[in-house]
């Protein structure tokens, strides 16, 4: 019998009506064993973060308001779904009461550790999964029993061998007895059994990990758009579905801001040779994207992605005579702080790197000033043109440069993997650039 991993994102489980639709879709896959991976209901993870922040800022009333709204959302959904049994209500209340105790603790100390934040953030998926499993009448597996990670709270790294072991131990036997099992995305646990999370948007990654561990026949990512589109539809209304992509293309788009997929999702799927499809719960029979072994879009530009909140940090040293030593020292500073650098450009006397706006810029600047004069340009966005045949098609450069003519560009990089041309512009220009690139590549422009 085939086994599917079906992951449903926040909007897809965002209300009782949406959860009913999820049940329909799962039902439509009769004949396959199904592992249903769910995200928190839309907006709940954000509320949990805001709630915890409010408690840290000693704004107890505000924190409790957030909690009460979260509780009401789930209780109302349970009533609409007609699953509000004392047992199910009890499960919701238990999570809510635990959150309440934690809020009081945070308020008292004015401290919020990453470990505590993960425990709190995990409540979103724990709550939504109770509703989904309750409505579908199938067993609920606590993902923390299978998704073993390191203790890097807030963005933990999965331990693949352990996940395989625990999947065989806890998930496989359940699948023997039941056709459908529900579990949570995003959450896991470390060796000390503390709750961890895989980072924001991490439910996709959970689906990738589980699909690889059980050697599923397919990982279906169900979301609110018809697959991976040629650009973010919120920015480019003419964006359309990309039907076939390679794992590399999907990973590259995701890491350059295509939020539809968590960047790490495809790696485990690729390693296990499991195809991934991305589909819309609003149009279950509509268009979708397929990423599968040996496939490629076969295009110079398959899609364009954009990531905001980028800064460019430049270090200038007039007498950069020992260039090799200089770069080693520079990257050592980033490396020791665990800061990942995106794009890099070097000139005779300066090095510029792009970083996330939330990097510890002040501390970095202090340290880097030992090497040279540091300057930071903020409010930037990185834009990436991605396609398997990009490097083999010189016209892509021409099309790109014509489309961005007149827009100030800070930094350009052609990825070493040869499928990505990325550059940085001011954030205020980014949407305009996206639209003109999209017109050039996908709306009758030359390619
Ligand atoms: P989910 O909650 O289902 O995980 P997300 O909000 O994380 O959904 O991701 C889906 C969203 O990703 C879409 O609604 C869309 O706005 C955004 N997005 C950004 N870039 C793309 C793209 N290239 N293709 C499709 N969606 C994209
Ligand atoms: N609920 C988590 C988030 O909002 C994980 C996910 O939705 O993928 O980040
Ligand atoms: Mg997502």
Structure in words:
The chain is of the alpha/beta class and 447 residues long. It has 2 domains: 3-224, Acetylglutamate kinase-like (Carbamate kinase), CATH 3.40.1160; 303-443, VC0802-like. It has helices spanning 16-27, 44-56, 60-80, 86-109, 114-136, 160-177, 203-213, 247-255, 266-272, 323-336, 361-368, 395-403, 427-442; strands spanning 3-8, 33-38, 140-141, 180-184, 187-189, 195-197, 218-223, 244-245, 276-280, 289-291, 303-316, 344-346, 350-356, 373-386, 409-414, 420-426. The strands form 3 sheets. An 8-stranded mixed beta sheet has the order 3-4-2-1-7-9-10-8, with helices on both faces. Helix 2 (44-56) runs parallel beside helix 4, helix 3 packs antiparallel against helix 4 and helix 4 (86-109) runs antiparallel to helix 5 (114-136). The model has no long low-confidence stretch (mean pLDDT 94). The structure holds adenosine-5'-diphosphate, aspartic acid (ASP) and magnesium ion.
Q: Layout of SSEs?
A:
Blueprint: E1 3-8, H1 16-27, E2 33-38, H2 44-56, H3 60-80, H4 86-109, H5 114-136, E3 140-141, H6 160-177, E4 180-184, E5 187-189, E6 195-197, H7 203-213, E7 218-223, E8 244-245, H8 247-255, H9 266-272, E9 276-280, E10 289-291, E11 303-316, H10 323-336, E12 344-346, E13 350-356, H11 361-368, E14 373-386, H12 395-403, E15 409-414, E16 420-426, H13 427-442
Parallel strand pairs: 1-2, 1-7, 2-4, 3-4, 7-9, 8-10
Antiparallel strand pairs: 5-6, 9-10, 11-13, 11-14, 12-13, 14-16, 15-16
Helix pairs in contact: 1-5, 2-3, 2-4, 2-5, 3-4, 4-5, 7-9
């Amino acid at each position: 019998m085939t086994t599917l991993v079906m992951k449903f994102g926040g909007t897809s489980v965002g209300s009782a009506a949406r959860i009913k639709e999820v049940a329909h879709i799962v039902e439509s896959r009769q004949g396959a064993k199904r592992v249903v991976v769910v995200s928190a209901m839309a907006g709940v993870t954000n509320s949990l973060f805001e709630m915890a922040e409010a408690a840290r800022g000693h704004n107890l009333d505000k924190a409790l308001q957030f909690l009460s709204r979260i509780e009401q959302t789930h209780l109302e959904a349970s009533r609409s779904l007609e699953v509000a049994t004392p047992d199910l209500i009890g499960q919701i209340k238990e999570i809510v009461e635990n959150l309440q105790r934690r809020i009081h603790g945070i308020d008292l100390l004015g401290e919020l550790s990453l470990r505590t934040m993960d425990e709190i953030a995990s409540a979103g998926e724990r709550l939504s999964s109770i509703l989904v499993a309750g409505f579908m009448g199938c067993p609920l597996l606590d993902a923390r029993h299978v998704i073993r990670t390191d203790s890097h709270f807030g963005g933990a790294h999965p331990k693949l061998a352990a996940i395989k072991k625990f999947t065989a131990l806890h998930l496989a036997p359940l699948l023997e007895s039941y056709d459908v099992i529900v579990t949570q995305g995003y959450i896991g646990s470390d060796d000390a059994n503390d709750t961890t999370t895989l980072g924001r948007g991490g439910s996709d990654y959970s689906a990738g990990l589980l699909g690889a561990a059980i050697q599923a026949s397919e990982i279906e990512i169900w979301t609110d758009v018809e697959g991976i589109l040629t650009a973010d539809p919120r920015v480019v209304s003419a964006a359309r579905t990309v039907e076939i992509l390679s794992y590399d293309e999907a990973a590259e788009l995701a890491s350059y801001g295509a939020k539809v997929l968590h960047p790490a999702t495809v790696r485990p799927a690729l390693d296990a040779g499991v195809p991934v499809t991305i589909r819309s719960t609003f149009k279950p029979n509509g268009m979708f994207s397929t990423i599968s072994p040996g496939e490629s879009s076969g295009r110079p530009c398959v899609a364009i992605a954009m990531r905001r909140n980028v800064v460019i940090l430049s270090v200038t040293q007039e007498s950069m005579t020992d260039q090799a030593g200089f770069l080693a020292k520079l990257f050592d500073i980033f490396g020791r702080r665990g800061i990942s650098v995106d794009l890099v450009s070097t000139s005779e006397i300066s090095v510029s790197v792009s970083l996330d706006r939330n990097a510890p810029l002040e501390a970095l600047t202090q340290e880097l000033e030992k090497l040279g004069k540091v300057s930071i340009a903020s409010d930037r966005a990185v834009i990436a043109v991605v396609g398997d045949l990009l490097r083999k098609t010189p016209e892509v450069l021409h099309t790109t440069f014509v489309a961005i003519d007149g827009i100030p560009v800070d930094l350009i990089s052609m990825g070493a993997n040869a499928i990505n041309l990325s550059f940085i512009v001011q954030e205020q220009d980014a949407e305009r650039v996206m639209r003109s690139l999209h017109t050039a590549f996908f709306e009758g422009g030359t390619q």
